[in-house]
């Protein structure tokens, strides 16, 4: 008895060759709409789905495969007498193979289509067919991935059918596929409906690569990717160097999140999720020199990022400093720059999209037995929210440095204190258990390098005036902090007493 394959695909890559192979193995090909036209044009003798259902496609193709003659042929248990009898009674023919890939919903959303077009690209018949076939995988082969065409054809040619192990593997892929597809639709519709915290949350990502290991060699790890966005190491293009590691990806992500705060030419050096040197300047080469000199010790073995293309001059400057770097990231590189950087054979050189809109809005973090989900800290203070709360007002130069410092300290692990001068980090205090401890680390670094007339930024309010008094001992002239402590007045009075200007932003930036 001739076997039957039902083929209906959105991605038509390789489908003609696949179906020709099935025909050679004695399969009759049943198809729908655009797929059938492609198959016939390619020389495949495909019959129309309406020849099976006895009913035409209706509602602009919304209804074509939702029919008992299709799902009966897929779901019948072929060694169960009652099923065999019912199939025979209703003149239903078995369908032995289903080849379906789904409407391009994600691609439609990503290219900015309107709501009606996105809804029209929600596949109904496709998921129903492949779920039916996968449920009955003891008898039916279901193919949803063009990468499985060759395996399926080879098994059929060699053995007359696929193995049960293959059918079970393909069935598992079906349910991952439909779960992913429904999750994307659910996420889109939830956003369109304006739901903030829905009763359930399903997030889906696609495997990009398996990693050598995780944070440590004994931990297995993999990288999964979601929808494309700017400032993303996941969607960056690597033009040189070794494969990215788990820790590389973590650091690169932290670095890019900081870099997107800046429009002016800015260079960042980062190590272990914390910036070690950041600077803005009139040119990107000048910014790099300032960032490197801010902490030429810590940047060794770290990563650097630039928000301007790397040209030959910048590449030569990087090489001249003879510092080992794990990653260099920029929106582009001249051919001459690529030639210069090629001498750093192991350094990963990445092209990162910094032009399109940054679209990520949420952040997920696993905890034992659950998931924390929050808005990303994409916001920055409004100029109108800035308040000078002391008798002394910052000079224009101090205010420029204060705003620079606050952008950077936002991306330093809490408790975070940062001192700066001339739009360059002068000292970074990260992750200490008390704010004074972080302040002392930052201030001591500046003092060791003879940097005076500093401004200081804090990611959160001062619970006491001790940080202000410590800052005064190191020559800090202006401070920026969120405010909001019940003891704000103590810190303000200390500033007035010590001749320090203080600005509050009204926005905290804890980063645990």
Would you kindly provide a brief summary of this structure?
This protein has 512 residues and is of the alpha/beta class.
Overall 3D shape: elongated
Low-pLDDT runs: none
The CATH homologous superfamily of the largest domain corresponds to Methylglyoxal synthase-like domain
Main beta-sheet annotation: 6 strands, mixed
Query: Roughly how many Å apart are the termini?
Result: 65 Å
Kindly provide the name of the CATH class of the largest domain: Alpha Beta
Count of folded domains: 3
Tally the helices: what do you get? 18
How big a fraction of the residues is strand?
15-25%
What is the strand arrangement across the widest sheet? 8-13-12-11-9-10
Describe the protein in words.
The protein has three domains: 3-193, Rossmann fold, CATH 3.40.50.1380; 228-351, Cytidine Deaminase, domain 2, CATH 3.40.140; 383-504, Cytidine Deaminase, domain 2 (3-Layer(aba) Sandwich). The chain contains 18 helices and 21 strands. The chain has helices at residues 15-24, 33-41, 49-53, 68-75, 81-89, 105-110, 115-120, 125-135, 149-159, 164-193, 246-259, 284-294, 312-320, 335-341, 396-409, 435-448, 466-473, 488-498, and strands spanning 3-9, 27-31, 47-48, 97-101, 141-143, 206-211, 221-225, 237-240, 266-271, 274-280, 302-306, 325-330, 348-351, 362-367, 370-375, 387-388, 417-420, 425-429, 454-458, 476-481, 501-504. It has a six-stranded mixed beta sheet with strand order 8-13-12-11-9-10, with helices on both faces. It has a six-stranded mixed beta sheet with strand order 16-21-20-19-17-18, sandwiched between helices. Helix 17 (466-473) packs parallel to helix 18. The radius of gyration is 30 Å and the shape is elongated.
């Amino acid at each position: 008895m001739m076997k039957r394959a039902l083929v209906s695909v959105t991605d038509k890559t390789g489908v003609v060759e696949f179906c020709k192979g099935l025909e050679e193995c004695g399969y009759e090909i049943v198809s729908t709409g655009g797929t059938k036209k492609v198959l016939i044009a390619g020389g495949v003798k495909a019959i129309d789905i309406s020849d099976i259902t006895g009913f035409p496609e209706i509602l602009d193709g919304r209804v074509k495969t939702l029919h008992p003659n299709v799902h009966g042929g897929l779901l019948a248990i072929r060694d169960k007498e009652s099923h065999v009898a019912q199939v025979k009674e209703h003149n239903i023919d078995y369908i032995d193979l289903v080849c379906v890939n789904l409407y391009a919903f994600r691609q439609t959303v990503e290219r900015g289509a309107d709501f009606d077009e996105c809804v029209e690209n929600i596949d109904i018949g496709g998921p129903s067919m492949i779920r039916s076939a996968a449920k009955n995988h003891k008898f039916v082969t279901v193919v949803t991935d063009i990468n499985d065409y060759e395996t399926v054809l080879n098994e059929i040619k060699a053995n007359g059918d696929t193995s049960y192990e293959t059918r079970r593997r393909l069935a598992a892929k079906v349910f991952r596929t439909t779960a992913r597809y429904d999750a994307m639709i659910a996420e889109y519709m939830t956003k369109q409906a304006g739901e903030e915290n829905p009763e359930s949350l399903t997030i889906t990502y696609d495997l990009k690569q398996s990693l050598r290991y995780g944070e440590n060699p004994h931990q297995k790890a993999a990288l999964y990717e979601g929808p494309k966005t700017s400032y993303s190491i996941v969607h960056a293009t690597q033009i040189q160097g070794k494969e990215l590691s788990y820790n590389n990806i973590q650091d690169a992500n932290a670095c890019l999140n900081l870099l997107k705060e800046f429009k002016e030419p800015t260079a960042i050096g980062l190590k272990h999720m914390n910036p070690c040197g950041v600077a803005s300047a009139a040119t990107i080469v000048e910014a790099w020199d300032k960032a490197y000199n801010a902490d030429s010790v810590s940047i060794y073995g770290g990563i650097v990022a630039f928000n301007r293309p790397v040209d030959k001059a910048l590449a030569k400057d990087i090489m001249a400093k003879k510092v080992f770097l794990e990653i260099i990231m920029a929106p582009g590189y001249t051919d001459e720059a690529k030639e210069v950087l090629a001498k750093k054979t192991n350094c990963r050189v990445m092209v990162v999209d910094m032009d399109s809109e940054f679209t990520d809005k949420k952040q997920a973090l696993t905890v034992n037995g659950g998931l924390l989900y929050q808005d990303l800290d994409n916001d920055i203070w409004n100029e109108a929210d800035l308040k000078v709360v002391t008798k002394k007002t910052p000079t224009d130069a101090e205010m420029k440095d204060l705003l620079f410092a606050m952008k950077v300290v936002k991306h330093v692990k809490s408790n975070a204190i940062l001192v700066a001068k001339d739009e360059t980090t002068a000292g970074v205090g990260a992750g200490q258990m008390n704010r004074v401890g972080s302040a002392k680390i930052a201030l001591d670094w500046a003092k060791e390098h003879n940097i005076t007339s500093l401004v200081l930024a804090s990611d959160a309010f001062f619970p006491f005036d001790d940080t202000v008094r410590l800052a005064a001992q190191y020559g800090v002239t202006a401070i920026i902090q969120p405010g909001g402590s019940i003891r704000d007045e103590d810190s303000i009075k200390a500033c007035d007493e010590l001749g320090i200007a203080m600005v509050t932003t009204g926005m905290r930036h804890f980063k645990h």
